[in-house]
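Ops channel
N.P.: pipeline sanity check, posting one input/output pair.
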């Protein structure tokens, strides 16, 4: 956040900023969604809804699973939430008690760790590196002294973009089910994948909680809408928590999102844009000598080992911004232990931002080699 403020100050002063920090699409919500929002404003009260979401949206989400994964989901198993962020809070509160041990991967999306800690859970970070695509392994779980109350996986993940291959996700989901571990599968980057096909945790086991969102593939971050596929034993608790904590997810966004599944072509064209950006950024970084990149299977991030150029990626990011106007996220945001060796570069923006950053880095990086 401090780096973002520094980048904004630099931009305000009129200096150039090649911004590769962003964790969100650079395009607006789909056309049909925006049109539906305009119609709903004129025709609907935009009052409270059921705490689990309007039935038409829950049905539309259930149909998305049939279409995309061949998975039959009952609309009653879908809970619409205030972004996936709201879904995580409901899930953690419904599934865990204070003091429960919940396993996350390091590096990983920092809100898992922070939200769990705020709720009094005991967070255990499993270190992950390039040898396992920065994903947790079954062997690591089997070596724990006792099965934890929960495990969070994300595939594709933030900050690495890496995915769990289908057989590994299935093996982990099976282990969780056999050992009474509540698996929470963050599938928010599904739809934005390049090399592997994403699988849904419910294709293996329906005691897992699947967390998803309109934020990334549908480019609707600020509409604050996500959903859970919620196991039968948690639906009631989640429903009661949702109505107490926020009454309902945003109503205007719900009416609009019913139309989010009308046209996947528009969405996939955007993914094609990310794919072009990826094809520019990854080889460009390798040419500059930044060869140790996490396999960017999905999402829109490159997680880059910069230890040949710095001992402290936070200081490196500030220098890079100050000296050449390239803004990226330091790895310590995602990994407090090993993140000082990494940076995260987003390719969600436009091609010109990426080529501008690459050419600025080309002139500057050789002087940084340690
Ligand atoms: C892996 C991951 N999960 C969850 C979220 C939260 O997204 P939202 O609350 O907008 O659905 C993000 C946001 O960047 C993310 O990267």
């Amino acid at each position: 956040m401090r780096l973002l403020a520094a980048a904004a100050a630099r931009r305000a002063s009129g200096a150039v900023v090649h911004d590769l920090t962003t964790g969100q699409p650079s395009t607006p919500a789909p056309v049909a969604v925006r049109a539906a929002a305009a119609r709903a404003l004129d025709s609907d009260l935009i009052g409270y809804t059921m705490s689990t979401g309007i039935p038409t949206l829950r049905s539309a989400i259930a149909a998305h699973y049939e279409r995309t994964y061949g998975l039959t989901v009952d609309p009653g198993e879908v809970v619409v939430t205030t972004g996936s962020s709201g879904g995580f809070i409901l899930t953690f509160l419904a599934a865990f008690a204070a003091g429960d041990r919940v396993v996350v991967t390091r590096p990983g999306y920092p809100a898992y760790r922070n939200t769990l800690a705020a709720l009094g859970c005991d967070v255990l970070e499993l270190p992950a590196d390039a040898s396992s695509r920065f994903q947790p392994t079954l062997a690591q779980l089997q070596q724990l002294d006792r099965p934890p109350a929960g495990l969070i996986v994300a595939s594709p993940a933030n900050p690495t973009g890496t995915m769990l291959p289908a057989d590994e996700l299935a093996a982990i989901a099976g282990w969780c089910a056999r050992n009474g571990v509540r698996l929470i599968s963050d599938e928010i980057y599904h739809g934005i994948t390049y090399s592997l096909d994403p699988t849904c945790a419910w294709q293996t086991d329906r005691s897992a909680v699947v967390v998803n969102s309109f934020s990334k593939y549908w480019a609707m971050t600020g509409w604050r809408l996500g959903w859970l596929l919620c196991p039968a034993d948690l639906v009631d608790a989640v429903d009661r928590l949702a109505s107490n904590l926020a009454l309902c997810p945003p109503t205007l966004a719900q009416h609009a999102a019913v139309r989010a599944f009308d046209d996947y072509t528009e969405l996939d064209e955007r993914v094609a844009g990310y794919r072009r950006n990826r094809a520019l950024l990854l080889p460009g970084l390798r040419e500059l000598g930044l060869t140790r990149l996490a396999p960017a299977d999905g999402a829109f991030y490159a997680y880059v080992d910069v230890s040949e150029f710095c001992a402290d990626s936070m200081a490196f990011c500030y220098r890079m911004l100050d000296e050449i106007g390239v803004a990226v996220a330091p790895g310590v945001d995602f990994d407090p232990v090993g993140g000082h060796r990494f940076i995260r570069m987003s390719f969600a923006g436009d091609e010109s931002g990426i080529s501008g950053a690459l050419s600025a880095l080309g002139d500057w990086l050789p002087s940084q080699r340690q």
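N.P.: looks fine end to end. The chain has a mean pLDDT of 96.
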